[in-house]
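Quick illustration, no need to memorize.
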Amino acid sequence: MTSPAVDSIATMHSRMGGHILVDQLSAQGVKHVFCVPGESYLAVLDGLYDADIEVTVCRQEGGAAMMADAHGKLTGQPGICMVTRGPGASNALAGIHIASQDSTPLILFVGQIERGMREREAFQEMDYRAVFGSQAKWVTEIDQVERIPEIISRAFHVATSGRPGPVVIALPEDMLVEYADVPDAPRYEAVDAAPTSAQMETLSQWLAKASKPIAILGGSRWSQEAVDDFAAFAEAMQLPVAVQFRRQMLFPTTHPCFIGDVGLGGNPALMEYIRDADLVLLIGGRMSEIASQSYTLFDIPVPKQTLVHVQADANELNRVYRANLAINVSPVSFTRALGQLNVPADAPSWSGELKRMRESYQHWADPRKITHPGALQMGQVMSHLASVLPSDAIMCNGAGNFATWLHRFHPFTRFGTQLAPTSGSMGYGLPAAVGAKRIHPDKTVVCFAGDGCFMMHGQEFATAVQYNLPIVVVILDNGMYGTIRMHQERHYPGRVSATTLHNPDFAAYAQAFGGHGERVESTEQFAPAFERALASGKPAILHCLIDPETITPTTTLQKIRQQAMQQQK
């Protein structure tokens, strides 16, 4: 059906710019768009009316961008976000920063003023190249309607090739209502290469000579097949394997070769092992500040460990750490080539080290050994969740000390089951859960959030209700910005400032939106409340009251304060 907006001068073959743009998204395989509508891109919204693309209308642009990021993480295909100009674009920047640091493919379309009004500081005018230039892989503006297919095709290639990341495209309002007769661009295909036989032979020789090796997995451009291939290789080689910060889904935590994650509050025994390793196989990741323990695990620029770095982006190789062997391919391509390596018939010399580190990890990650102040014991909560959740449940979180319970104690076993910002962005968990459930309505989706974290994007609970997305949000409420309070007590003991929060009744909050809500104050209350939340068939919030002293699984605020005061004497 012809839109009322179609001008009478349009020919049978010409299309309005906003419709051409939507047709390009369809041609590139897009099935979901996350947006907050705006008058600056009404022509695109009109194009979506007839498209076979699901549109999720969000309550704030930051949440929309985070949902698109979740899509990119789960699928490897660019998440699509649309926002209006000025304030809308500003709000979306939080999600762009996440996609940038997390290496997530994402394309943000931003409405823009008419071309003839530029540089007059027109209504909501922004220079998007200047605003997003340091956070996106590419920022551009479509000045000619005829170039829409070309630029969108390029955007998909840029967002997915090399080290994935966000692309920002500004859409002048007047350009979107012009007409052109242009063909659609063919579907994109991410650029990749294969490791050379010489590189794989060198790796094979170094593994044969190693006495204390380790593989560390991170980054993006993984798939379930790549995860399975590497797990099989590690088992055949009896190779110790760790994952970078918030990348637990890259290797099954139940695998006999898994020895832990390299992130915040990690197992000290694992950090010591990495420092003493003689061969490090770093696949996909960058070993940036958090994973590298503030750049202390490897010497810079030349690590004392023999370093084999596998990275899809040539610009990341030798950027911080000078690799002994730099392999410029994606994790998918590299794991596919592992079949070239010879597997030794005898047990490797490091088999004893693997056994020791596996036992250390199992002890470290056993929630049953954890007790802390308060009636609600999170160790038992985590044990219960591990026993009842399906292996493909998608676990989401934002940032805060509360996330330690999930990262340290949940048994991730499959790819595509973790949504967590390595950028440390608060507020991410709820939008990510909404985005995940929108993409995979058949899967169980659980969001962990702190009280401060949840309120950053709590309004997206309304989005979950609007689209009937029965996610379960577990809010751990300690009445403070806990991570900041922990650092405050460590550096300025007893001088509490700007970290206390007065929170609403989150169970009532859920009910007010039309969801299911319950208050959980003790361990015994959690399991039946969680079961009722799942059975409700509604978006649900479990408002879990945590003793404020329980700042981490292993220490309290009082202990941190006392230690800091003793050090100051």
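The two ends are 78 Å apart (CA to CA).
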